[in-house]
Fold each of these.
Amino acid sequence: MAAPFNPPTNFADKPEVPQWVPPPAPTEDLDYAKLHSLDLSLLDSPDPAVVQQLVDTAKIAIRDDGFLYLVNYGISLEQLHRQFSIAQYLHRNISEEDKERLHWDPQGGLYAGYKPPFGWRTIKGKYDGISQFNFYEEEFKSLDRVPTCVHPFMDEITAFCDYLTRSVNRRLLKLLSKVLEMPDDYLWDNIESHNDTCINEGYLRHALFAPFKHEEKGMGENLRMFGHTDFGTTTLLFSVPVTCLQLWGRDAIWRYVQYSPGALVVNIGDTLELVSGGHFRATRHRVHNPPPSQETFERLSVVCFNGSKGDLRMQPCWESPLIKREGCFESQGAYKEFKALQDKGVPIPTNKEWREISIINTRHPTDEPQFKEVMVEGVKMFEVINQGVRVLQPV
């Protein structure tokens, strides 16, 4: 049975951290996506029938939605709120000197460091109200790479990230390996990047979405982030009350993801869609302005983006009994486009190349000029060519 999270508790020698207080949930009757909820603790059940039911539910959730709620994964609500309090503390106390010193450079293919609330490029762009600090491998190796204000809390941040990657995500990948009918550690051993650091080739993000002032509300077509898929294996996003996250359904309708206290909102990245031959769905999602009842609230976000081994060139797990039996789904986005490239005899990008070009070409609502717009089956899409791969994202 998986051990629960056991974080450092030596708070006495640290600065006082004001407690993060979750804002109230929206009062509107919103159109919510109907997502499956998976109890990760059931993976340890001694009853094979219970485990198989969990696997069957996971198979449906990742095929139909690509998003799911994960509960009972080992972190208590109190422990989680402590991490949100630390993230809030970072954004309240990071110095102007550290903002400049640790300024990010996404044009280099990484989101590492501090993102100011002015666009999605290295240079200052239009105000977008989104501040971030992104912890990559190097940030966990050296205190010089993180804001001075969180130096006293890096033991807690590191322990938290380590638990997310080595316990929560490893168990989740075990479950997904079972869906592929492969050995339990297939995805962990062969696809997921893991070494002696807690984050490996992924990253941990502390993000703060400031509420827009009245004159800013229409900025970016009422969007904070455009529709996109994540480029890694899995994304672990902690559910928050300020309701902005939307996912693109198979019926081409954007729906909100409802707040579920303490739950992890998990989505599948491009890598796992490719490995599964389209059985796992990398679902497009975006960040919208919150509903009117939450317009004055900050949205604090803590996210763990898990990464795959950088030198791998992704292709389906042909030895999977599931794929042998049911074949691949060429209608899926990432898998369909990668296969088209492969069919032409063109080498597909490595994981490292794919994530770096995806970061470099990230499009944001405040960007100018606009990317190319195309119509696909009556739906307006943005088109980008990344490493020869055609990427389509709904507006």
Amino acid sequence: MAGASQSAKVLATGAMRMSKRILLSYILDWILILGIAGIGGGFNKGVQNTNKRPFSLQDPSISYPYREDTVSVPVLAVVALLIPAAITMVISLIFIPGPTASKATPKSLIWRRKIWEWNTAWMGLGLALALTFMITEGLKDLAGKPRPYAIGVCNPDLSAIDRYRVGGLGQNFDLSGATPILVSSDICQERDPGTLREIFASWPSGHSSFSWAGLLYLSLFLCAKFAVGIPYFLPNQKTIHANTYEYDNSLRHPQQHHTGHPASPHGSSTSSATRHEEGSNGFTPPPRNSTAAPPIYLLILAVVVPIGTAIFICVSRWFDFHHHGIDIFSGAVIGATTAYSSFRYYHMPIRQGSGWAWGARSRGRAFWVGVGRDGYVGEEGWTAKKAAERDMHDIESGSSTAALKDVAGAGVSDRGDVEGGNGIGRQEEPVETGYTIRSQG
């Protein structure tokens, strides 16, 4: 109970110090995300006079029997929305800020990071699913493509073929003939507006798009947080020729044949950057030691399970006779595109971001940037204006270090605070650059 009370006190303190302008900015973002989802719901339920493509009663591709969903809509919502939301929340609250955080880091800063990562995780997921829902339902209404079971559920009035004929090559109305006859949806004896809308809502597949949007986003999130990816040369890793080093039988100690380092203009044989890239023994590590493959179980949990589930949901729409192949493929492309775009909108690249989300917008750029600025991050941080000014005064006067014990104040980089405590007077201690720890020279 004491721990929970302390956490609540920390969160309350952080909330009081946070800029109302930034808070309102992200509340507006959430309102717009929900609004996008609401538009999709309007397309799904509120539009009755949707397009309905003419069809042929002799078309075998829409003559399949009706079957119940293997994956129902409620199950789809649980799998693609609720489960990813729960997993991303738990990971954000438990694994953030990660093992590189100093034990001296203030709890308020730790909790601010947790809440921020949780917020960005849900905003990305919400944006992916909302966009997918709106795009999919809108395209369904515009296309009006009949489903594979269309004829059976439509229950056409065969005595009125001549009345509802809208196209075809001949005048022979004998259905046993080879001449195609196109009729309008008015021939259907099924008159329920919702059912008729579903009959002509084949393209694109909503199950496919929604499952890929939620589950691919979850996969990207897990890969980012647990560094799951195909090994590659790190961005700052020096590429060494294969013949530069050889190994003894233990494969532990590199034997250098030649260095080739030019003399430094300051009298040193190597530059500080070269010393940073080299190992502690003075040798640059070989390429094979630049990275390693992650454990297989992480690959299964982060990639195989969510992507495999999305694929199964897609295939179920095929063998349930609810969608044509192109409908399923198109839905998967829509969902995958929105998932990747929404993930990158709020998160750093998987390979280079060390699992972090992008930072918050600054107080002065909460709603727009303006000409002459190159981004939404500013130097003043995201604390309230008065608190930031008070913190800056304390920092500049050197009279107090309390300013950094809650949240980063004006002009203070909170990234360094996470790695090394309060960030004051630490010229010789590790600092964080690009989320990679190095020591200052």
